[in-house]
Amino acid sequence: MGKYVVGRLLQLVLVFFGVTLLIYLAVYALPGDPIRALGGDRQLPDSVINAMRAQFNLDDPVLLQYLKYLGNLFTGDLGTDFNGRPVADLMAQRWPVTIRLALTAWVIQVVLGVGLGVLTALRKGTWLDHTVLFFTVGVISIPVFVLAYTAQIVFGVRLGIVPVSGIDEGWPVSYLLPSIILAVFGLASVARLVRASMLENLRADYVKTATAKGLSPRRVVYRHVLRNSLIPAVTFLGIDLGYLLGGTVIIEGVFNLPGVGQLLFSSIAAQQGPVVVGVATVLVVIFLLANLVVDLLYGVLDPRIRHE
Amino acid sequence: MSDPTATITTEPAAPVEESAGKSSTLVGDAWRELRRRPLFVVGSLLVIVLLLMAIFPQLFAGWFGNGDPRVCDLSRSTEGPAPGHPFGFDKQGCDVYANVVYGARASISVGVLVTVLTLVLALVLGSLAGFFGRVVDAVVSRFADVFFGFPFLLGALVVLTAFEARSILVVALVLAMFRWPSMTRVMRSSVIQVRDMDYVRASVGLGGSRLWLLRRHVLPNAITPIMVMVTLDIGTVIVVESTLTFLGVGLQAPAISWGLQLSNASTDFAAAPHLLIFPSLFLSLTVLSFIVLGDLIRDALDPRLR
């Protein structure tokens, strides 16, 4: 197990360098000159431009720029945007919104996803099963922004039961609709995963053994089948936390929530390279860590997959 | 060669293939079972019609007399359905029906192109990594890890912003860049499973060369899991393309695509809901058809579910 963890961590470091390099290259290949764009119609004097280019290392070769950025990153410095505001501060203001949104969505996924999965597996072939299956497939086929706008108009504008946008009414009221929309995709996958693995496990020999030795059906289902069926769902839910953070870019845009996703999106439009690199890097690192935790949890949850 | 599964062809997911008589290959069985499912027949028909629409939009666009998506009448901006214009008019006064028909090509092209690119990469890299192991495996797997390290949408978003002009090909290449790792991983583990089978060992004993072995025995037997992923993937990619277009980093006007129509319509939804409803109906129908087909094929190919 120890050897596996060390190997996995080394792999993570390698991926980290690859991922950050890719983000850095993509952002610095952006068309246009970000420093000149700052001046707008009244061009900045050449001396100012040169000073700023030097400050952000923009005249170095890209690879050297990247190494300098990494150096700063390891001392915990995410740099400043082109207006001089520290990227870390910009993000710090916005994290609470994104974390609240993502975690609320995640909890919805866990509760409803596992619940619907168990329910449909136990009632296989009934109208309930078919309805849920139809819903889970149907929802995947609709782009998330279409779903978000539709829900916003129907529940926010027409019915008026939730705020249309913004976070003025705080958690949970303002976050309810955005979280549900954000959760819907993962929810469908969790429900299907749990259903499929429940159905597979329900036919397993250990279920017959458990029933034969006189356990109540409830105990067989919840203590034996469910525990074994949750492993694929746990993997998915761990990785999905990363996807939820990526999904906030769209949801925060539609519902006008001032979170990290919205920051990323507006920074791309405003050519704020340092902010884009910073936000994307942090999001990817969270995603990588979530993956790592899932991999390590796997061995704990399923004794058959112990890493010797 | 006595192993029954060794006769699997390289295109198990292609429904047009004739199964040879009563042979009980995995694919033959699956095909015979699928033909009897009404959902499979409906799904396949829908996919065929949509593919025809993508290739020959002019065949469908003129049904109501106004077949040119670029002939617009600004005075009828955002008007609802009218005679000759069953889906109404968009903001520029163009016929929505013609636009939706012509939009099929861009969206389906992206879906198919990404999937083909991913499939080729996964087939080559996955089978090499799985079959040869060691250094090849390490290099391929680490590269895959890097691209797998991004949440799909986030990676595509960051890279696509670097392009000023984004054609169908550019969007497809970037999406494939972040799509290949998952399929390659599946292919790799599938090849590893097959590699150590007795019939492969036997072929080694008979003096087959390594590459011949890979092509003749390992590949045909390891390909099934990723063929199922392919069908499911086309749908997912079409949805992702429209989402990226909505974020402003996908296809650009004057291209005609469902993603562009949807992202233009989403801001005017309250005033002109038909602009959102009709393109999204077609998009969802397309995605749904591919997903349902993929699901049915997977179930048919999984012997445990028989």
Q: Which helices and strands, and how do they pair?
A:
The complex is a heterodimer of chains A (308) and B (306).
Chain A: H1 2-28, H2 34-39, H3 46-55, H4 62-74, H5 87-122, H6 127-140, H7 144-158, H8 173-202, H9 205-212, H10 217-254, H11 260-269, H12 273-301
Helix pairs in contact in A: 1-12, 5-6, 5-8, 5-10, 5-12, 6-8, 7-8, 8-10, 9-10, 10-11, 10-12, 11-12
Chain B: H1 26-35, H2 38-55, H3 57-61, H4 96-132, H5 134-148, H6 152-160, H7 168-195, H8 198-205, H9 210-222, H10 224-246, H11 258-266, H12 274-301
GO biological process, one term (chain B): transmembrane transport
Subcellular location (chain B): Cell membrane
Region (Disordered) (chain B): 1-21
Summarize the structure in short.
Chain A has 308 residues and is mostly helical. Chain A is built from twelve helices and no strands. Chain B contains twelve helices and no strands.
Summing up helix and strand content along with how strands pair, one would put the structural category of chain B as: mainly alpha
Q: What is the straight-line distance between the termini of chain A?
A: 5 Å
CATH topology of the largest domain in chain A: MetI-like fold
Succession of helices and strands of chain B: HHHHHHHHHHHH
Total count of strands of chain A: 0
Strand % of chain B is: under 5%
Mean pLDDT of chain A: 81
Transmembrane segments (chain B): 39-60, 110-132, 152-178, 218-240, 276-297
Family (chain B): Belongs to the binding-protein-dependent transport system permease family.
Membrane topology (chain B): Multi-pass membrane protein
GO cellular component, one term (chain B): plasma membrane
